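Researcher: We're teaching a course module on how sequence relates to structure. For the next exercise, students receive a sequence and then see the predicted structure as tokens, so they can try to spot secondary structure elements on their own. Here is the exercise chain.
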Amino acid sequence: MNDEQLLRYSRQIMLPQIDVAGQERLLAAHVLIVGLGGLGSPAALYLAAAGVGRLSLADDDQVDLSNLQRQIVHGHDDVGVAKVRSAARSIGAINPDTTLDLIETRMDGAHLMERVADADLVLDASDNFDTRYQLNDACFGAGVPLVSGAAIRMEGQISVFDPRVEASPCYRCLYPEADDDSALNCSENGVAAPLVGIIGSMQAMEALKVITGIGDALVGKVLYLDASRMEWQSLNLSRRPGCAVHV
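Model: And here is the predicted structure for the students to work with:
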């Protein structure tokens, strides 16, 4: 690290759990963020601010006026602009040293597998079961940890699925079969603006922990938030017998 980086990340380096070695791991890390909406917005901003050296941003959507209530990486002047490009401008304003790869198409099949395998960690901020299942399968196929979050109405959840941990469950262990995607859709269910900020920021924190190796990541646990009561529940999650991912 140069002197400017030592100053920029000094408050993080002061933490004995992170120190210079942990910060250098962040600077060398490559995180793939899928979805630049309510969850991906704070996650991308915080990971860039924390010093993750390379972020791949994947989203095939454009900024809509209705997004601005909660998708804080975008601004009013970005309406109609590709979300990855809008996000890139905001991230660059915070940390111009972060290398950004922009993926403006929906990833699937071999393309998704290739992108996942190239990353050190994947952050799932998507809003449909098909993408979540594909990311889960690709991460376990490539041995890449996956930080998964969801938020709708006044409820949120977060978990970490890490194929490098022998007993780690996967997303299919939590949801063996897809429910109706409309259950994940903010346009049909609504969502409180700060809720996605809470869950997205926690995804960034879990990603930082996994990359640096500090603390206990949420592997084998699902953390649920009822924001209407500001109550948290932590539930243990084991591998589901017969899960095809672990056969």
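Model: If you want an answer key for the exercise: The domain at 3-246 is CATH 3.40.50.720 (Rossmann fold). Residues 159 and 222 are 5 Å apart (CA to CA).
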